[in-house]
Design a protein that fits this description.
Layout lengths: L15 H8 L10 H7 L6 H17 L3 H10 L5 H14 L2 H13 L10 H14 L2 H13 L6 H13 L3 H9 L6 H13 L3 H13 L6 H14 L2 H13 L6 H13 L3 H9 L6 H13 L3 H14 L5 H14 L2 H14 L5 H13 L12 H4 L11 H14 L2 H13 L6 H13 L3 H9 L6 H13 L3 H13 L6 H14 L2 H14 L5 H14 L2 H6 L11 H10 L3 H14 L5 H10 L6 H14 L5 H13 L3 H9 L6 H13 L3 H13 L6 H14 L2 H13 L7 H13 L3 H9 L8 H14 L2 H14 L4 H13 L3 H10 L7 E6 L2 E6 L6 H16 L26 H12 L6 E5 L5 H10 L7 E4 L4 E5 L2 E2 L6
Parallel strand pairs: 3-4
Antiparallel strand pairs: 1-2, 1-3, 4-5, 5-6
């Protein structure tokens, strides 16, 4: 065997631990067996017969696993053959303890039979396997040396044992050398070297060995396949694993229960729940391991509800489970926060009599802590302490203590925390780093700084965990500058930071708004090798989303899988920057990766679709949220109403409202606002009575919607009754917007004298630009030049840069003949900025600008429509002077503004009968408004134009705004 074919240079010495064990007296039993008495009756001169019979009884004891009886019989044998030693040693190798094999081998070589007995290849193989079990590389090398020294016949059994021993002890180079000199390695040798590489963390090399094994024509068995699937699982190598699955099916191993369980675990760990379910569905038989693997697969992928459903099926069909089932389902219950389910499982554990299982107690602790409701003082707050009574003899370990300290931290339970501190001292756990870090965290979260620092200072040479706990505690309590100072001191002390340290310091930088420190920390993270850690990257995404352009945060999303990214920070940043296109791309990435998505992020996504040109994106998002099971959340329902309302789909908004099982004031306000926005005041008034009937609480936004609906219907008296009832009946102080609503009510009714009287009674501090803009809008609708001039001047006093008010005032001055004043305003407003309109067709948005010429097909369509209108006798309405202040003037029919270009483009490409939806960035002019009303009489489709002030649904020659916009 090349480098190993030499005598061992190390003398044959028993390892110290085994030597101590060997020096103890052998255990002897005082029981008498009938077999022993029968053996003693055989004559002394027939010693070989006696030995063979002893060996027969030895083999019977070993086969039954009765190693104590076998050892007693072995010790009473008058003569022991090599077979006797081999039987007992192989029994210890099978049933344990493996260390007894090494002790017996030493006895065999050095005892009374040492000079007569010569180990054969089988004995050496048994001893080598025992060396692998106890991972005693030194002893294994000595045995290997004895094999070479005695020139023992090296058969395949011994070769395989050598490979297995070196592989099990982590000496992969030696295992590879032994394997390489085997003439024709069989399946056992291949499996041994494959197992060694996989178990020692060299999964990639293990897969290469498996490929070589297949190329050499070796047919794998279930053990080899399980090792390969384990390697694929650890590497999350889905492609290779599915090929292995195909090969398993091809050679007929697909009905092996052991492999089916391994396949389910592989697919689950790779995130392929569909593949796991298919394997489970095709299993001809299932054991408890199958059920546990299936449940744990869903838990591992955070599909807690499905795991809970499978567990219920398990209990209904099998009526039993084990501690592994319970630990998995407790994780699911913790993730869902289903405390009642957790209590049921706790009750089952008590009935089954397994409440003393330490791992179950730890899982129950985590469940109660995870489901704890801090807003109520419920008796379950004391449950974690009561669980300690289950542990026999007070067998507390560091994991249970740290869980209890976490419970104290979350509930700021200082008294119980002090009690646990005393228990830590009693159990002498003061040197455990994680227990001490949990103790520091508990005192920090309870606000006892001196105690936390005292615990920290008493730690000799504190490592990463105590430092992280101290820094995290400072960040938790808002001492962000001190947290940064401690982090710097930690670096000076040459203590390496971990992910918990970095996330705490990143949050401190975020709270302080210190981007420079955050970028410096990012460099430190790169040097420390944490640039792909999920928690750290998500914290950095949060930091950059808040303090830097969101495009910088987006670059970090390539460092970790999409399924692990906390997208909510980035979605909020994109929403604030009005970068809706990026949000829709993020949603696509979430769909592909089955990534994390919470109800609040879903609301932000719906908000990004709140435009008629983004209606398709909104409906697709709606479908996906329904598939994910998020649509039943009340906040999402409110967002759906607002999105469909902003997209011009009032019927869909009403449908979303009607499907809500429980409606709150936000829901009522959303649907009220939608009705008012789309010109349905009568339906809004009807909703008001429903709000009163359902005893829903009203707020300031609700009154704004109600008063706007009264303005649209001209209900002056009702509006004043509601306005005065705000403070008298509901105790709500009217805001500036409520005063402006009353002004709109009076202005739309043409009661301008009453408007001015009402304004005189408005408190001065509430007499802001909104009041005068509302008056300006009413005067525009009624064509009252005098009031329009007065309102425009008031607006310009408060906001001189208001472009619309300047333009409107200029038009009023020209109309009233005040040329000089109009000329001064004209020189001040030299140019009108370019307006634009957008339309969405087949998921692509097209923009039409006033300073750009339309395409030929658009011009041709406009000419066709203009000809049709002239043919039908359309005459442009020129009584819209005060509505045309924000756009350029054109001669002719008036089909030259951007919304008309967009409508023409939509009419060219959209199917007949499909509504055309356009968004315009300035107020729609009167000429285009009149033209659209006329066009809706012969185009046989709905035309929808959304400007900054109103929705315009043109249908059958009418507009939803009732010509008041």
């Amino acid at each position: 065997m090349q480098s190993l074919l030499t005598s061992p240079t190390t003398p044959f010495l028993l390892p110290l631990a085994l030597h101590n064990l060997h020096s103890q007296p052998l255990l002897r039993l005082n029981s008498n067996h009938i077999a022993h008495r029968k053996l003693k009756l055989i004559p002394q001169n027939e010693i070989h017969v006696r030995t063979r019979l002893f060996n027969l009884y030895l083999q019977m004891h070993v086969n039954a696993g009765a190693m104590q009886e076998a050892r007693q019989l072995f010790d009473e044998m008058p003569e022991r053959s090599l077979v006797s030693w081999t039987i007992v040693m192989s029994g210890y190798a099978r049933h344990g303890p493996a260390s007894a094999v090494l002790m017996m081998f030493w006895d065999m070589l050095c005892g009374s039979e040492g000079g007569l007995l010569r180990p054969d290849s089988f004995v050496f193989a048994v001893v080598l396997r025992a060396c692998g079990m106890v991972e005693s590389l030194r002893y294994g090398r000595v045995v290997h040396g004895l094999v070479l020294k005695q020139s023992c016949v090296v058969d395949s059994f011994l070769e395989n044992a050598l490979v297995s021993m070196y592989a099990s002890c982590g000496a992969l180079e030696d295992a590879a050398v032994v394997f390489s000199v085997i003439d024709k390695p069989d399946l056992v040798a291949w499996s041994s070297i494959l197992s060694g590489y996989v178990k020692n963390g060299f999964e990639g090399e293990g897969l290469s060995i498996f490929c070589d094994m297949i190329l050499r024509g070796i047919r794998p068995d279930a053990f080899a396949f399980s090792m390969v699937l384990g390697a694929c699982t650890n590497l999350e190598c889905w492609d290779f694993g599915t090929q292995v699955h195909c090969y398993i099916v091809k050679i007929g191993f697909d009905s092996c229960l052991y492999l089916e369980n391994s396949l389910m675990d592989f697919y689950a760990k790779c995130g392929d729940l569909e593949g796991m379910s298919q394997v489970y569905a095709h299993m001809s038989e299932k054991n408890l391991v199958s059920w546990n693997t299936f449940i744990n697969g869903y838990v591992h992928n955070f599909h807690y509800l499905e795991a809970l459903r499978i567990f219920h099926i398990l209990m209904a069909e099998v009526s039993k489970c084990d501690d592994f089932s319970l630990i998995s389902i407790l994780k699911a219950v913790t993730g869902l926060g289903y405390l009642d389910h957790g209590k049921e499982i706790h009750g089952y554990i008590l009935r089954a009599g397994i409440e003393t299982n330490r791992y179950l107690v730890s899982s129950l602790l985590d469940m109660y802590i995870g489901c704890m409701d801090h807003e109520s003082l419920y008796p379950r707050d004391e449950v974690p302490l009561k669980l300690l009574n289950y542990l026999e003899g007070g067998k507390y370990d560091e994991f249970i203590i740290t869980s209890l300290l976490k419970w104290c931290s979350l509930g700021s339970n200082l008294e119980n925390g002090k009690m646990l501190h005393a228990l830590i001292i009693k159990l002498d756990l003061k040197s455990d780093s994680y227990v001490l870090s949990s103790l520091i965290d508990m005192y920090s979260k309870c606000g006892i700084w001196e105690a936390a620092k005292r615990v920290f200072t008493r730690v000799e040479q504190p490592d990463t965990a105590p430092w992280s706990a101290l820094i995290s505690g400072h960040s938790w309590n808002g001492c962000f500058t001190e947290a940064l100072r401690l982090f710097r001191k930690m670096q000076f002390d040459c203590v390496e930071a971990n992910e918990f340290t970095f996330t705490s310091v990143i949050l401190a930088c975020l709270a302080l708004g210190n981007l420079r420190k955050g970028r410096e920390l990012h460099c430190k993270i790169l040097r420390s090798g944490y640039e792909s850690n999920v928690s750290v990257v998500n914290a950095l995404i949060n930091l950059y989303s808040e303090l830097w352009p969101h495009t910088q945060a987006l670059k970090l999303c390539t460092l970790i899988p999409d399924s692990e990214i906390s997208w909510n920070f980035l979605i909020q940043a994109c929403l604030g920057a009005e970068d809706y296109e990026i949000i829709h791309k993020i949603l696509w990435r979430i769909q592909v990766s089955r990534g994390n998505l919470d109800p609040f992020s879903a609301c932000d996504i719906f908000a990004s679709c709140s435009s008629p040109v983004l209606l398709n994106a909104g409906t697709q998002a709606h479908a996906y949220m329904t598939k994910r099971g998020l649509i039943s959340h009340p906040t999402i329902s409110d967002s759906l109403i607002q999105m469909y309302s902003a997209c011009g789909r009032i019927n869909e908004a009403v449908r979303s409202f009607n499907m809500m099982p429980k409606k709150d004031i936000f829901s009522w306000t959303s649907i009220l606002s939608a009705r008012v926005l789309h010109g349905h005041p009568s339906e809004a008034v009807h909703l008001i009575s429903q709000i009163r009937w359902n005893s829903a609480l009203v707020d300031q936004s609700t009154f704004s919607c109600i008063l706007n609906s009264c303005a649209q219907m001209g209900l002056v008296d009702e509006a004043f009754q509601l306005f005065f009832s705000m403070k008298e009946t509901y105790g709500i102080e009217p805001l500036e917007e409520h005063y402006s609503c009353i002004i709109e009510v009076l202005g739309r009714a043409g009661m301008f004298e009453e408007v001015l009287e009402f304004i005189n009674g408005v408190p001065t501090f509430k007499l802001g630009p909104l009041i005068w803009r509302t008056l300006l809008s009413c005067s525009r609708i009624n064509g009252n030049m005098k009031v329009a001039k007065y309102a425009a001047e008031k607006v310009l006093e408060l906001e001189p840069s208001d472009f619309s008010a300047n333009r409107l005032l200029e038009q009023v001055l020209l109309t009233s003949g005040e040329w000089d004043d109009a000329l001064k305003l004209k020189t001040k407003n030299k140019s009108i900025k370019a307006s634009s309109s957008c339309i969405e067709i087949r998921n692509k948005i097209y923009e039409f600008r006033s300073d750009e010429n339309p395409a030929k097909e658009v011009s041709a369509k406009l000419a066709e429509i203009e000809g049709k209108m002239e043919e039908l006798g359309y005459v442009a309405d020129k009584n819209h002077l005060l509505h045309n202040a924000e756009e350029e003037e054109y001669d002719g029919v008036g089909l030259h503004h951007t919304e008309m270009k967009a409508l023409a483009f939509g009419l060219t490409l959209l199917p007949p009968g499909m509504p055309v939806r356009v968004v315009k960035n300035v107020r729609m002019c009167g000429d285009c408004h009149s033209a659209c009303k006329f066009m809706s009489t012969f185009l046989e489709r709905e035309l929808v134009v959304k400007d900054p002030y109103s929705f315009h649904h043109f249908r059958d020659g009418k507009c939803s705004c009732r010509d008041a916009w």
